[in-house]
Give the backbone structure.
Amino acid sequence: MTTDPATAAGYQDPPPRMGFFTDTSVCIGCKACEVACKEWNGVPEDGLVFTGMSYDNTQGLSADSWRHVAFIEQRRPAGEMRWLMASDVCKHCTHAACLDVCPTGSLFRTEFGTVVVQEDICNGCGYCIPACPFGVIDQRKGDGRAWKCTLCYDRLAVGMEPACAKACPTDSIQFGALDELRARAAQRVAAMHDAGVPEARLYGHDPDDGVGGAGAFFLLLDEPEVYGLPPDPVVTTRDLKAIWGKVGLGAVTLVAAGIASFLRPRH
Amino acid sequence: MAECHPVGFQWVMEAKARGAVLINVDPRFNRTSALADVHVPLRAGTDIAFLGGIINYVLANDRYFREYVVAYTNAPVILREDFRDTEDLDGVFSGFDPQKRTYDTATWQYQGEGSPPTTGSGGPGIKGITTGEVERDETLQHERCVFQVLKRHFARYTPEMVEQTCGVPPEKFLRVCDLIAANSGRERTTAFCYAVGWTQHTVGVQYIRTASILQTLLGNIGRPGGGILALRGHASIQGSTDIPTLFNILPGYIPMPNATQHPDLDAFIKAESAEKGFWANMRPYLVSLLKAYYGDAATADNDFCFDYLPRLTGSHSTYETVLAQMAGTCRGYFLMGENPTVGSANARMQRLGMAQLDWLVVRDFSLIESATWWQDGPEIESGENRSEDIATEVFFLPAAAHTEKDGSFTNTQRLLQWHHAAVEPKDDARSELWFLYHLGRRIREKLARSTDPMDRPVLDLTWDYPTKGHWNEAEPDAEAVLAEINGWRTEADGRHTPLSSFGELTDDGSTTCGCWIYCGCRAGGVNQAARRTPGAQQSWVAPEWGWAWPANRRMLYNRASADPDGVPWSERKAYVWWDPDHHKWTGHDVADFIADRAPDHQPPPGSTGIDAIGGQDPFIMQSDGKAWLFAPSGLADGPLPTHYEPQESPFPNLLHRQQRSPGRELMPSAGGNNLYHPNPSAVFPYVATTYRLTEHHTAGGMSRWLPYLSELQPEMFCEVSPALAAERRLAHRGWATIVTARNAIEARVLVTERMPTLTVNGRVLHQIGLPYHWGPNGYSTGDAANELAHLSLDPNVHIQEVKALTCDIRPGRRPRGPSRLRLVEDYRRRAGITDDTGREL
């Protein structure tokens, strides 16, 4: 049983951990989430590029795209077409590597358990960019600082839901207390299995996964790789302790060897 | 629907969550298909064959709702002996004049009846019909009863024919038939949703008719969860026909008077009203409208200024207007929130027409293509025209957005929803209401001292809306306009008492009403359209959200939700029912029936008007009170729908020698600018279809200037199957040029399996998908799909056929400058196209 991240970060009596459950099985690919997010947060338009990647001209999460709808066209074994549509977002990990490596304290854990960049502190060092196992956080060109989804921290503070969740017409993006969302998602997957959709599965829901479970998790209809998601994401700072430990061991060994070499009897 | 109405589509998703089955029929696999249980790709332009096949299945397998059909439709009615069907005359009905290409509908009438009136878009009338005068066979066996005529008419629409014509395999077709039939009847209902994929054809209205026949046979009209829902193209296009911006109708679907047929008010009423049903009250509706227009100037002595109304001399539809512009007879043009050089068929002709105008006024948010064509349009780019030679004086006026003004939207559900201005428009941007009111005010000031009778229709208008002064320099009060639309009774002391229902309208000039179907929207002086009672605080019908016309009735013809005795067909589908204790209709909605008319009521012989409606006549706007499986009047091109090939098609009509709709409306060649392809043509072997994308809006004025929308779909592209890409060497993400006899455009190439390869009439058909949003202006630019389209129209409503045309496609960008036109001319030459091509019957 993991301590909830807000408590672990030192908050006394924080509110319940809040997050997203994105049920991609009811996504209609309208991209209202992408637009609502940019409108609310003043995120810049980031390039008119005809990618040819089905209807996805956004390409991926970045400093200037905090919701990204993926479109995957497939032909099923029986010959029918299938078009998977899924709105990706920052995972707000329980063990967040971006948070771990930030040297300035710009990235911080909020009382809601979310991970937010304080843009007035960020010095643009870029350490967080390679740290994220999902490739979410990124540096904004011409600005230099790191930017990503804030889970609409300003809206949460006044009891409102994030802009993307509010705009989503089919409730593919569901916002709420993470415990409740996890329970609801488990029921949804079970119902889908009963309805003859065995390929439905959850992603990012498991507190025992490599990032300690995500604050934003998903219902997928295929392998994560199909959606461009890493199948087994691990917080990149997980092995730091062990690595330093080995470094320490190595250092001790070296020092011991050095001392030992001076302690040898003189010929 | 997911592509074009993502917010509305949430209700489809709710239904799916409760177990509804979603069937999507579309030439391409789109975002709706992605969520559908069954996707049926078919050849663009063949839906009458497809739906007709379902009708044949339902009739042949006895899966129609017999009790409903016998009691509520004209299935039992016996037709005249001299009626001939398309099955008898190899593709035309009796009464066709091949010279005029029109029908004399006398032979289509019910046995024993005289000829019907001409109509606008209102309910067509049948003179002299009352219960008992029509010959009927309730057993549906008589050889000439509508039911048997229907069966014969669709008998050859077999699964094999559907496969050959539409490219739909029989297993899939029959699965759809079974799903629909199994989900109809007493306990279950099925709904159809459609949009311009059905209407933008030379037989568009007959597409809707086919769906109506099918839904009527299945008993799905006037019942919850049933019906045929038109998904509209923008937020208030329903409102734009209710209070019309169309040339041929007045508010409330009263026909516009005709110059030769309607010399005075009495003649108009005699010709256009019906003897039975609610259209019998045409006079009070029209007189009250005239009082709204002309106020005190309209009196019984002067026919209430009926003579001031404009008169039709023929069709003055938008495409005829373009021809009139090219001919020099139409000298001026207002474009308000409309971008025809992107959004209308034959984009090039739109520009050529405007280049002949004296003046053009464009009101929009941005400098749309229809405002700047004279400066930088394709004909300037190609050198064909020069700006300095174009004499049109072009005015551009910035327009306020819907968030910057008060007003209402009317949606497909006939629901009026009021919106309040949230912010002030910037700088000089103004609402349409402000513009038209002050334009009218200034014109009237200039004409004030005129003694010319020609100026009376402008000077006698009531033009006294109060204005609100705190911004926008005297913005007229939109609610005052709503009050006039709702109407009032003028009391003896001159006070205006708001009306509550169109039943209160009189023909003596004591009532005023801008639109009879909207009467009640401001009942009691309260803006009913502004009501927002949350769903959780009212019944599932939600009558307190907004206001629906007429009379806040949420579903039309809902008498049909109860059986002939007034009892719901099932508890599950109960909607309205007869309450014998209180001697009235009651239920979840306002009953679409005379409140106290018992189900067993038989009108006395010789009754007229509303008195002639019997207790088992749910279809109260039809002059016989029945749903018309067979339409004896009202349509120009046939009492029954028939599969005809589109104006341009690579295939022969497998059902009839008559290839295309004989009454389709062709437009002149206009100097070689509207040429048709031969059928078939090796030069134009592919079928193109046009459509929308979620990310953009119609002709782009509201999306292609916005960075957040433009980056989602940044460029014009075409969708092609891998097989077509291989055949024509098209590279994914590369460029392609698409060519017709009208123009050539370029588009990025999206190779996708979502564009199916169909087998039609034994051979492979490739279809090309073209989103139609782009033009050369704005943040996201590209060529307009409508450059390729020809002008051929449905004869009933003059809507252009842009959903199925033939074309060629080739790799690479299109030529620039004069070479563009030379490419098109080369194609025309190779295809042997002349001014006469495609104009055969």
